[in-house]
Structure formats: structure tokens, C-alpha cells
Amino acid sequence: MVEKLLEVKDLKTHFHTFKGIVKAVDGVSFKLNKGEILGIVGESGGGKSVTGFSILKLIEDPGKIENGEIIFNGENLVNKSEREMKEIRGSKISMIFQDPMTSLNPLYTIQQQIEEVLKLHTDMNAKQRKQRCINLLDDVGIPQPEARLKSYPHQFSGGMRQRAIIAAALAAEPELIIADEPTTALDVTIQAQILRLMKKLVKEKNTSLLLITHDLAVVAEMVDRAIVLYCGQVMETGKIDDLIHQPIHPYTYGLLNSIPRLDDQKKRLSQIEGMVPNMFELPEGCNYSPRCDYCQERCLQEEPKIREIHEGHRVSCHYPLSREG
Amino acid sequence: MFKYVTKRVYQMILVLFVVSIIVFFVMSFTGDPVLMMVTPDATQAQIDRARMELGLDKPLITQYFIFVKNILRGDFGKSYVFKQSAIKLIIERMPATLELVFVSVLLSIIVAIPLGVFAGAFPNKKSSKTIMLGSLLGISLPNFWVGMMLIFVFAVHFRVMPSSGRGEVVNFLGMRISIFTADGFKHIILPAVMLSIQSLAILLRLTRAGMMEVMKQDYIKFARSKGVLQNSLLFQHALKNALIPVITVFGIQIGKIIAFATVTETIFSWPGMGKLLIDSINRSDRPVMVAYLMIVAFIFVLLNFIVDIVYTSIDPRIDLR
Ligand SMILES: Nc1ncnc2c1ncn2[C@@H]1O[C@H](COP(=O)(O)OP(=O)(O)OP(=O)(O)O)[C@@H](O)[C@H]1O
Ligand SMILES: [Mg+2]
User: Fold this and answer.
1) Could you give the ipTM of this predicted complex?
2) Which of A153, B219, B226, B246 could cross-link to A90 by cystine, CB 3.0-4.6 Å?
């Protein structure tokens, strides 16, 4: 029986800059079950990171969660105080960042940075904590973990740092991990290793994972379902197989077509024409209309509502592509 | 580590050697001390005899070597005025100055760091803007004027604070120290405030700038995502990083505090070595000036050394080899 862990309903996170309001996340809704891996996909600036930070309520000035509910284990995080959130961060929900080179504090040892989570969220004593740190480093595949405890981040390679960060994120056995492009800064071979490792660890502990990425191909074999974000709005969501093999939103289709493939005989890579629009002057109607190959009169005037096309497969488009095409 | 320390000690000796050359030659161009010492109606023969007694008739180079040789034996000559060992005069007055400097440095740190952290972590708050305005005043108001205003307000107008001297002193580890008596403590407040204001303001602004920079870093956000509490986020994760550039500058600031102590001591009649220096300059008492300069140079060099050690002990990325 699937159990719901997280439900985000109509989340709106806006930044009140002095140039105007940036609607970084504008009405995003999704569900995440226990033990499930959900991908959030989209181009740069689509609001993926802001969505992730909103769940932990780590949005800083001038940003603000304007609307919506974030139901985690039946409780709405939006109404929680900063004090209550501090108890949830790191213990129930933890986060992995994009750039392992900058996410670790250069002045603290690896042990200190992993142990901190245990100090805050468990009542282990010093000896137990140390043992747990060693086990965690071992789990994430760092050789000779005991000898590495006293190392500083600068003595680790990028891949090892990201492993250490994953260890810190796993330390208190959270129910949800938000990984914001965890492998973007790493080279391709390490990327695959880290992703496989994360999948393994998450599945072992029945932890849920929200995997943020701009690369659908990278996560295709990782995630169970995915949502496609564009300008802060959900364009399409569904099982990953459906999205990859039968995309129905022109944007998803465009994203997939711009992935290079080795077996492809086409002369040149296709790409989505145009650029992500300026967040201060979003187009009327559908946000994607200026770049859409299938744009019609109605798309320029009326904003499409998200609707279910097929079981679990939802799209926000007036003229979705046919599921067979 | 050991290799590093020996290397630094060599450097320190070299610096002090260069300082000794500069001090000696600059001194020999400032006024003729002999004329200050003899009575106005002295004959040429008397003047010549005095010059010979002081060893000032020999060539400059010879004088310099004698000077260095004596220094190495801890002998800076006798004060022309007090007819006592110059170094002894300085050392007698050193506790008073060190005490004043110590209290001022402590005051700067205690006030500047928390305020700087606050202003850097919450730059948009009204109170942060007030703090920054205050620090701007602290930097721009002339030091001596602040001292005189302090005397005027607290000593003359309200009569709550003494305006001069050290008050009661007690013996502590063989030094005469005043902060441990209530009376002495009262005496040190105004001069310490005056002496610390400028470096306090600079330290505050540097801490704030560092904090603002550090608070934007990913590792702070990562720490927050781990649920780290506000205080340890600001005063451990962030402050430690923000202090790295501040420490170097603060080492220089302590040197400046020692130098400015001469002005403060003069205004508050604080019987320290700074006041002795000013008195000696007025009387062309060359051995005392030289001894003062050499000792202060030594303190500077030592301070820099300590700052570097502190610096490397905070930042693991710095390799001592
Ligand atoms: N602090 C901020 N102030 C103003 N605007 C912001 C701020 N943070 C994010 N934004 C805006 O919110 C929008 C979404 O940003 P977000 O970081 O979520 O994008 P993303 O999908 O994660 O992109 P990337 O792939 O580059 O990480 C962007 O247009 C960005 O300019
Ligand atoms: Mg991002």
C-alpha cells in the first residue's frame, strides 16, 4: 500500500525584488509517496531550487512563500515556526546541494560536519556518534573511513565531498531527502556512481527522494515519477516511462529532443528555440507559447489549466501531443 | 611547525636589525643632545667634555656598532635626564601601558565582534543601520578630541570619572597593576574607551563585511538545512570564516593601539611608557627614545608572529611548510 509522505498544494514562492515580483514558483502541486523517487526537471531558472528550498522553508529575503500548503506527514509546514522547522531540518527532511566544493564549511572536519546532525537530532553519546560517522562514510563508499574523519574538506576530491554531504544528509535517517542537482558539478563517471549510490541507499531505508535536475536522461533510470517545471509552473507530470517515451507537452518533448544520443543518426542536435522568458515580463496565456512549435491562437490568450490525460499523467497544455506521437 | 617557527624567528631578528639601523641614524639627525644637557653658559671645553663622555665624538659608524653591541647586552644607555638605565625606565612604565592596551583591545573585541556579527547577519534591520552609523562616527572623529570630550563630559561636567592618573595600584606577578582595584578600574575606563574607539569601529566594520560575505555561502545554507541553531550558525559556522581576514588586520590594529597610547597617556596623564616617550622627546633624551622605539618594534614583530600562528591554527587550508 502506498503511503503519502509529502503533498505540495498550489505552492507560490515569490521574490519581491526592487525591479518587480519574480514568481519563481507559481502554483506548483505534487505528491510524493514513502520510498518514492520523484524528479523535478526543467531548464535553468524554472524554479526547481526554489521549490526545494520552500519545502524546508529556507527561503530568504526578499523571497516569501505567498500561498499554498506543504503537507509533510500530515502536518502543514507552511504554518510551522522557525523553531519547529529547525527540528525538522536535518532530522526529518535533509538536503543535498548542487556544488560539493562549496557546501562544506572549510574550517570544520568531515566528522564535525556529519556529527553535527547527530548532536542536534539524536541522543547518541560521543562514542556512538563517532561509530555512526564511520559507518556512514563506509556506506557512501569512502575508503578507510576512520582515517578520513579528521580530514578537512579541501583534502577531499569533489566526488568524495559529495559522498560526505550525502552521509551528513543520511545521518539522522530522514524520511525525505531533497537533492538539488547533486551531480551537476561532478564529472560523468562520478555522476553515475553517485546517483546509483543514492538510489541504493534511499531504497534500502525506504526514504523518499526529491531529485532536482535539468537533465532528464540522467535521472531516467533513477526516478519513479517526474514533474516538468517551466517558469515556476508544472507543465507535465507522470511516470518517468510515460514522460520519456510518450511526452505530451511540447516542452517535455523539446527537452528530450535536445539530449544527445550516441545511437542517433541525425546530423545535428535539435534544441528548443528561444530562451527562458524574462521573469518580469512573462507572456500572456501559456508561458511556453513564444517558444512552442505547436502554438496556436488560444495559447497566446488563455493560460492552460493542468488536467489529467491518462492515469497519473497530467499536462498543462491546450493542445497536448497525442500519446502515440 | 618547528621549521616554520625558526624561519620566522630569523625573519624577526632581521627586521629588528633593520629597525635598529633606521632608529639609530634617524636619531643622530635630530638635534644635538649635548646642547640640551649643559648649562646655557657652558664653555666650549665643557661642551666637548660632555660630548666625549656620551661617546658622541666618535664617527657615526663606530657609534652604531657600540650601540648594537650594547643593545645585545641589554644596555640602551643612561637617560640623560634621569641618569638611570633607559631600558629600566621603560620597563618600569611598561605595565601601565600594557594594561591600558590590554583593556582597550579587550573592549574592542567584546563590543565589536557581537555587533559586527549582528549587523552582518541582519543588514536590513534598523538597529544594524544604527550600529553602522555609530561605527562611522567612531572612525572619523579625531582621537584626541574624543578623549577631551570624555574628560569634559564625565570628569568635569558630571564628575563621575577621574580625569588623570592610574589610581590605586597593587602588585601582581611583580608588576604594578591598577585594574584589580576599584579605584584603578575607575581610572582606566575613560582612557581605554578613548584608545579603543577607532579600532573598535574598524574591527566592527570588518567583521560585518566578512559576515555579509560568508552568510551568502552555500555552506551556511547547508548548515541551516541540517537544523543548526541560530547562535551556533552565526558565532561558529559563519564567524570563524568571517574572522580569517579580520585577524590579520586586527594584528595591525593592536600595533596602532600601542602607538596611539602615547596620545591617550598624555591626555589622561597616564604614567605609561608612551607618556615617558613624549616627555623624552621634549627633552631630547635620546637613549630613552631609542629604547622605546626598539621595544615597541620588538612588540610589533612579536605580535605579527602571534597573529600568523593564530591565523594558521584557525584555517586548516594554510600549510605551515
Ligand atoms: N534571492 C533571489 N532573489 C530574486 N530572484 C530569485 C532569487 N532566488 C531565485 N530567484 C529567481 O527565481 C527563479 C527560479 O530560480 P531557481 O534557482 O529555482 O531556478 P532553478 O530551476 O533551480 O535553476 P538552475 O537550474 O539554474 O538551478 C529564477 O528566475 C531566479 O532568478
Ligand atoms: Mg537550482
Assistant:
1) 0.90
2) B226
Could you tell me the CATH number of the domain that includes residue B100?
A: 1.10.3720.10
Which residue, among B145, B146, B197, B186, has the nearest Cα to B164 in the 3D structure? B186
Tens digit of each residue's pLDDT (9 = 90 or more) over A223-251: 999 999 999 999 999 999 999 888 999 99
Identify the residue whose C-alpha is closest to ligand 1 atom 19. Answer: A45
Neighbouring-strand partners of residue A227: A40, A237
Residue B84 lies in a domain: no
For residue B182, is it within any domain? yes
B96: in domain: yes
State residue B171 phi and psi, 5-degree precision. Answer: -85, 130
Q: B204 lies in a domain?
A: yes
* Total-model pTM: 0.87
Q: What is the 3-state secondary structure (H, E, C) of A91-102?
A: CCEEEECCCHHH
| Cα three-residue angle B241-B245-B248, rounded to 5 degrees | 130
In angstroms, the CA A266 to CA A274 distance is 21
pLDDT digit string, tens, across residues B252-271:
889 899 989 999 999 999 99
- What whole-number distance in Å separates Cα of residue B136 and Cα of residue B276? 32
Strand segments (E) across chain B: 170-172, 175-177
What number does the ligand 1 atom closest to the CA of A25 have?
14
> Shortest Cα distance from A292 to chain B (angstroms)?
35
Considering every ligand atom, which ligand is closest to the CA of A46? Answer: 1
DSSP for residue A288: T
Q: Which domain holds residue B132?
A: 92-282
Strand partners, B134: none
Q: Could you give the number of structural domains in chain B?
A: 1
Q: Which residues pair with A26 in a beta bridge?
A: A12
User: Among partner residues A89, A99, A117, which is closest to B224 by beta-carbon distance?
Assistant: A89
Measured in angstroms, the CA of A259 and the nearest CA of chain B are apart by 29
Go through the domains of chain A in sequence order and give each one's CATH number: 4-92+174-315 (3.40.50.300)
| Torsion of Cα atoms, B127 then B132 then B134 then B136, to 10° | -170
CA–CA distance, A108 with B89 (Å, rounded to integer): 47
